[in-house]
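Thread: Newbie trying to understand structure tokens

Hi all, I'm a second-year student working on a class project, and my supervisor (Dr. K.) asked me to get a predicted structure for one chain before our next meeting. I've only ever worked with sequences, so writing a 3D structure as a token string is new to me. If someone could post the tokens and maybe explain what I'm looking at, I'd be very grateful. Here's the chain:
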Amino acid sequence: MVTINTRTVSTAVLAMLVLYVTGEVRALSQGTLLDKNRQSFPVAPPASVGALEPSVREALASIVPALRQRRFPTEAVREIGRSGDGRLLWYLYDLHWFVTRTSRDTLVEAFEELSGADLPENAFTVMGDRVLAWALPEPPDYRLLKRDLFLLIEPRWEAFFDDEDSAIDWRLVGWGGVFIDDRPDATSGQVCPRGCIPALDEPAVTNAAGGEWYPDEELVFGVVIDGEARAYPKNIMEVHEMVNDTLGGRRIAIPYCTLCLSAQVYFTDEIEGFRPRLRTSGLLSRSNKFMYDISTFSAVDTFTGRAISGPLFDAGVHFNQTTVVTSTWATWRNAHPETTIIAEDGGLGRSYPNNPLRGRDDAGPIFPVGDVDPRLGVHDVVVGVVTADGTAVAFPVAAVRLALEVGEAVAAVGVVIEPDAGGLRALNDGVDVPAHEAFWFAWSQFHPRTSLWER
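---
Reply by user tm_fold:
Sure, no problem. This is what the structure looks like when written as tokens:
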């Protein structure tokens, strides 16, 4: 048995050991963590153990009072930068939301001093990527420190932070730049006073003929439940990012993470004692939307469907999924002539642009994603599947389509991919397996041990 002295072994080596022991081998290429541009990260700085130094605790205690008075706590930030405790890099990154043009350099210099590495011009994004990749331990009382900061942005996040027994890893949580959608009713078109990503509840639908407003070549997310088909136009989903609906007699929730290109369908009528209705919080977790149930204020991991705080977490809730097929409207309509489609105005009397995001993600992820799995490009699209025994497997969409066009079989770990209504569907022994498309960076970071089908 080998004894490791955690006070002398570098954080990078410890992180690597933990990853190999747990089997969660992340984006390691010859022992190097790679960023979204496939460049190696600087070596992680050392992290202290145990309590913080008194001078650091005093500095931390002064920060929020100063921010409340609209003063940037320059000297406190410098004290943290001099601390030599890499755990505090998480907190310095959290502070970037509060800098002004005049205080930016103070924060950047403190981060550089504490991390031992210079930052480029796009300093704040790189800060986020580095702390995520280094996976340093959090400092003592980090949840409470972050709580006091983030409630300055949105006081209505309090319930998430105050659940001290939650499964939320607060290191991974950041702000998406919008506020919480806590409207009890999302059918009337009522807006969030401060601005949010507004969910759409029980949207109005029309038959296929009523969908002539939507261009044939534009994408839809197609869902079939108990023989009833429905198309959710991508442009409407880009505006709402969350739909609570009823299809095939089942209540469902459809979160769409535009940052991850991931539309998923969760059944919300299987949870005994609860009637969940999902909303967008305005927070992110590793660049994925942070959703929650408004009836219990329980946070739910958007990518996996697992409740991570509140009463749903206490009850061990894990929402089941069904398949989402990404197709063009014309192809989906031809394959499912009886399909319905969300009405042009969503039932809200509003209009939706054809391309709400206007190429926002064309240059790569706009929020930090940390280290990446270099087997594919970060924005390569995959069909992701988790089998009944928990095995995750990803199928690169472009390669799959080429294989299917020439009659090649596409199969891995018992999962077979077949064409369906212009999109792709996963089967196991001829039975549907829940599947959805996503960017590779998202699928691989939430399923770090995923298999990858290769042609």
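A couple of things are worth pointing out once you decode it. Residues 384 and 443 are 7 Å apart (CA to CA). The chain is about 25% helix and 25% strand. Feel free to ask follow-ups in this thread.
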